[in-house]
Amino acid sequence: MQAIVTKYLGPTNVKGSRIKAWCERGSIVVSYDDSVSDPHETAVKALVAKFVKEDEKRYGANKNPWARPMIQGGLPKGVGAHTCWVTEEKGTEVV
Question: At 87, is the secondary structure helix, strand, or coil?
Fold first, then answer.
């Protein structure tokens, strides 16, 4: 299981508002899209999609552990927390 944390990054003189999503495996920064109901969830989905694509050859389309439902919650000061149920691989079988 991995926890994905998201954080709002305010605009700068050069860049607009963004959301950063990160976990032990890696991170991604996406533009803040105020037209969606939950921009933090959008950032998490982008990070998970990145991992699914990276692992496509290893697991195939149907057994990728990143392609599972997530639990979403919050932490203080505008930080979001999302838990992915990612399992460890034993041998050639995903459990």
Answer: coil
